[in-house]
Write a structure and sequence with these properties.
The chain has a four-stranded parallel beta sheet, covered by helices on one side. It has a single domain (4-106), classed as HUPs (Rossmann fold, 3-Layer(aba) Sandwich), CATH 3.40.50. It has helices spanning 13-29, 53-76; strands at residues 4-8, 32-37, 81-85, 105-106. By secondary structure, the chain is of the alpha/beta class. It is elongated. Helices cover 38% and strands 17% of the residues. The chain contains two helices and four strands. The mean pLDDT is 82.
Length: 107
């Protein structure tokens, strides 16, 4: 039925519950899970303050931590998993080269 399930996560309880549902679906269908976390490039737009590249570094560290926790959760369930962390200004928003074909399902 499903081969690939794309699951965006942000570390919130809601996204983790969505991940749990995606894991259940993947186990039932034999699908793999592709986790994605999008860095918010506009988080400080309009504040009137300046910021440095350190902000993006902190966002990247946080995103990597979120993806790592999600990956551990999926792997512990015995489901194949890949991760993708978007760049601050992606050419193709949130779509890794390996995922240019459409996923069968989005959680």
């Amino acid at each position: 039925m499903y081969k690939r399930i794309l699951v965006p996560i942000d570390g919130s309880d809601t996204s983790m519950r969505g991940l749990d549902e995606a894991i259940k679906l993947a186990k039932l269908t034999g699908a793999s899970i592709h986790l994605i976390h999008a860095l918010d490039q506009f988080v400080f737009v309009g504040t009137g303050e300046t910021y440095t590249g350190d902000v993006f570094g902190l966002q990247q560290e946080g995103g990597e931590r979120i993806l790592s926790q999600g990956k551990e959760r999926v792997a512990a369930a015995g489901v194949p998993v890949t991760t993708f962390l978007s760049e601050p200004m992606p050419r193709r928003p949130w779509v890794p080269r390996t995922m240019r074909s459409a996923p069968d399902s989005r959680a």
